[in-house]
Amino acid sequence: MDERIAHALVWLDYAAVAVFGATGALAAARRKHDIVTFGFFAAITGVGGGTLRDLLLGAPVFWIDRWGYLAACLTAALVIWLTGLGRGRQRVLLWLDAVGLAAYSVVGAAKALALGAPALPSMVMGVLTACFGGVIRDVLAHEESVLLKREIYVTCAVVGAGLFVILRGFGLPGLPAGLIGAGAAFGVRAGAILWNWTLPGFPGRED
Amino acid sequence: MDERIAHALVWLDYAAVAVFGATGALAAARRKHDIVTFGFFAAITGVGGGTLRDLLLGAPVFWIDRWGYLAACLTAALVIWLTGLGRGRQRVLLWLDAVGLAAYSVVGAAKALALGAPALPSMVMGVLTACFGGVIRDVLAHEESVLLKREIYVTCAVVGAGLFVILRGFGLPGLPAGLIGAGAAFGVRAGAILWNWTLPGFPGRED
Amino acid sequence: MDERIAHALVWLDYAAVAVFGATGALAAARRKHDIVTFGFFAAITGVGGGTLRDLLLGAPVFWIDRWGYLAACLTAALVIWLTGLGRGRQRVLLWLDAVGLAAYSVVGAAKALALGAPALPSMVMGVLTACFGGVIRDVLAHEESVLLKREIYVTCAVVGAGLFVILRGFGLPGLPAGLIGAGAAFGVRAGAILWNWTLPGFPGRED
After folding, report:
1. What does each C-alpha distance from A40 to A47, A182, A191, C123 come to in angstroms?
2. Staple partner for A167: which of A20, A24, A114, A172, CB 3.0–4.6 Å?
3. Which residue ranges traverse the bilayer (chains A, B, C) (predicted)?
4. Domain count for chain A
């Protein structure tokens, strides 16, 4: 791969972890928590999804050997603590989170494929990487998890990871497949943010 | 082991994962979720307990290399989405879940013993394998977990895994020990379903 | 290391697991659960933090090969079941839990450093080891987790693990660094218990 692209990907990786971390700190801010709790939520949200991916794949957990990931989360927590978070900046964070979600759905699936997992488990791995940090955040914060809202969120990760895995299966190289997958995931998320897209709920009756 | 028995066990394994997955989809149905959430809950409930077992034992996670397990969960989610779930079928599912619970308490303990774990941790592994998928489902669905109900559920897994491990310790071969353990677990669960068996609660006062 | 100190540390380890386990059984007692649920909560609270640490570090999970840890948890559950838990004894348990918290923040960080992790991830590992059993207990018991209370708890683990890692970085041997770290952690926790110390909450407004 082009040296500069590889370099950009590493930065994107840190940026995505920091953005996810910031959403964790935001959850702490909503409840007026102290700085330690800010850091805890930022760390667990920022690295949670990738941690689960690495555990499931039997790979070394990515933030243990490179402390920069935790530092990125704690910095994000500190920034939110110091600057507060006005409504405008929350909006920015929402969009950055969409970028992270899109990027991570592809990154997670790519890592699983690279380690030899079949297509379907690799897709699931992409979805978990992108979404699980937020799920842990919501469970620990005692908030209704993103899983339980009708908002389209997990679906974007399914689209991104699924498209990437399918295009790779048809022989497309990693970079275009990744860009298309992440682009589609971001597009769906953008539609959900801007126009409140939702999928139809279960039509049946359960009794 | 007899070839046909080994074959039957593999099918039982997939069937148990699918049934657990269906109970996850059912949790999604109760809240009128969309199809993606159905799939997410089915997958996490279906493979959750076995995933934890494999992580704890340091074994490769069972569904990564064989995509059929995830496919079984997603199929179960689709079936429930398409057919709805009348009260009669929920009853069927309750009984199938009891079969899965009984089978998995033995399967989990057997895998732990095979990997060289001592008796007590192997029992615990059987209990976790059988119950943890449902526990994760309830935590993520923001429902009161099966742990917190007075209903006998975890106890069945304790009976199944415990009996299996003890009988193996006395030198009984795996197949009869497994059948006795799973049979006893199923029997206890059947009693709980049919006659609302419960164990006595903590008699003391905590203040 | 002195033979007797090594021996004392092993006992401290079992004692800490038993005390954490007892706090799990206490959560079960508050809701009048049955004996099986007592055991489940005791086990998951007692070994939960160390389990997460070992999984993240890629080390064999500590209680799989040595069944004494689970036995310590189950014994703690049984003791609380049989003796009940008056207000006086709850107070004792609170202080023992503070000792366990202090000890475990150092133990977790030391294990991570010994396995070659950098300073920051090792600190985080100490915090997770000390706190995560309690976090899982609260999530499964559907109670407000210790993370969400204003009470100083996680902070003590941050102090203990942080001080230990920093002192080790300055070349202090493990034993004095551990004693200072654990002592400071215990001191902070004691202040929180006796005088309701809290950290200032997030001063900003989030809208």
Report:
1. 11, 28, 31, 12
2. A172
3. 6-28, 35-52, 67-85, 92-113, 119-140, 152-171, 177-197
4. 1
